Amino acid sequence: MPDAATQGQALDQQRLCFRELPALLCSKPQRVERMRRPVVEADAAQAVAACRRAQALDPRLARAWGDEGRVLTLLAEDQIRGGVDPSATVERAHAALARQLQLDPRANDAWAALGNLHDTMARWLIERGTDPRPELQRAVAAYRAAIRLEPRRAVTYNGLGNALVLETRYRDAHGLPAEEQRRRMIAAFEHAVALWEGFASAHANLGYAWNSIASAESAAGRDPRPALQRSIAAFSRGVALNATNPAYHNNFGNAYLTLGEYQLSRGEDPRPALRDAVGAYEAALELKPQYSLPHLNIAYARRLEALAQLRRGDDPRATLALAGESIEQARRLAPTDADNELEASREALLLARWEAKQGRSPVAALERAKAAVEAGLEHNPESAELRVARAEYWRRTATWRARGAAGASDTVAGEVIAGGAIANGASASGSPASAIAQGLVDVDRAVALHPRLAEALVERAALLRLRGAEGEAAAALAAARAINPLVLVDDD
């Protein structure tokens, strides 16, 4: 047991570490984006060094261990933003927090910090296409331990809700049931705002949760607007409480994007909703120009606008060019984000579709789409949506090969083009039939990854129809519409 003087010195060092924490905490999200990584790491190293000095002077000073864990968690979050594997940092943070809890098992804030740490690691795993559920189960268990010790702390309920959001996202991406997780995340955020009505982050997260429910309703062909009304109300309150947080504006835009996509699926005019979405994303970028997600979301909104133009018979190229500018910004800021590559591939595929409609070669656009898909699969090989995008690439490639090579004889390397179908099942390399076969392989993998992804079944139907298997195509399309009656179906 250290003497009183040594304990006092240890407390001084712990307070020095604690004084570093606010500077690091305020870096979320604004400060980190304005700083170079070595500066952030230097700040963290300085704080950790102070914690270590306190631990050396008094090894039983629980708070010194906890503060080290919190600093390292912040560093891990910054590493994730930079595309750096945080595993080693997370391991060090876990050891420090575990030591605090060994010394003080009733430290509710330490349990909450442990939940946040597991949540942080889960985010990294999700970005890499790895199952995050073991980490999320640990996060939920830690948050619940904190709540049992202190049930009136709104921040802990907010953290619990965030962990459930991540689990919901993973389940949605893999076609797994998520209704229970949605119910629990809504309950967690509502409990947080009931405890602290002025908690801007909890209001914004509640808006995000309701938008997640709206997206699920839309994916099932149901009306998402009741959930979107709740989402918009929660976001409005969050932004009113704190208009300087760019994430609130970005996620607010997502509610309008969900509405616009639903309207497009119903043949309604999505332009007002998409304009509101882009306006919210631009507000986020005014606050934080180096924020990748609003750039990605603007590109998504522009692509939906371009799709609406194509359906009306209008030239979508100018709108797609704007989308392309946004996605290139997103790629520059987040070079390892597979979602950026997915969006880039979808824009290129839409351009290829337009070019083919005009009788022009879509090959350059198709090859850009394929390159984007393959880059995305390097970052997330378990993405069903990237597989669907590549299947569409193969389908449009097969169609163009058949159309370009058939000529007056209406035959392609021994294949007969009849009624839009490629018959005879030839599989020579580079033939239309070979492209169809490769597309079906990608669709099968997408369905294995996400059995309820209606878009994958629509793509299967289109490929089978191109092959001439009308009965199988009709069955695949019926299965898609059983999942989502409003799923978008190309007319070409």
At a glance:
The protein has 492 residues and is mainly α.
First and last CA, distance: 78 Å
Average pLDDT, rounded to a whole number, is 88
Q: What best-fitting shape do the alpha-carbon axes yield?
A: elongated
Computed structural class: mainly alpha
Reported for the largest beta sheet, the result is: 3 strands, antiparallel
Beta percentage is under 5%
- The CATH superfamily of the domain at 1-105 appears as Tetratricopeptide repeat domain
What percent of residues adopt helix (DSSP H or I)? over 70%
What is the fold-level CATH name, i.e. the topology of the domain at 1-105?
A: Serine Threonine Protein Phosphatase 5, Tetratricopeptide repeat
Keywords:
single chain; Serine Threonine Protein Phosphatase 5, Tetratricopeptide repeat; three-stranded antiparallel sheet; 21 helices; 3 strands; elongated
What does this protein look like?
By secondary structure, this protein is an all-alpha fold. Among the domains are: 1-105, Tetratricopeptide repeat domain (Serine Threonine Protein Phosphatase 5, Tetratricopeptide repeat), CATH 1.25.40.10; 290-381, Serine Threonine Protein Phosphatase 5, Tetratricopeptide repeat; 401-492, Serine Threonine Protein Phosphatase 5, Tetratricopeptide repeat. It has 21 helices and 3 strands. The protein has helices at residues 4-25, 27-34, 37-57, 62-81, 87-103, 108-127, 133-149, 154-173, 179-195, 200-219, 225-241, 246-265, 271-287, 292-312, 317-333, 338-357, 363-379, 384-406, 432-449, 454-467, 470-483, and strands spanning 411-412, 415-418, 421-422. It has a 3-stranded antiparallel beta sheet. A hairpin with a 2-residue loop joins strand 2 (415-418) and strand 3. The longest helix is centred in the last third of the chain and has 23 residues, at 384-406. The relative contact order is 0.05. Mean pLDDT is 88; it is low at 4-14, 18-39, 406-419 and 423-428.
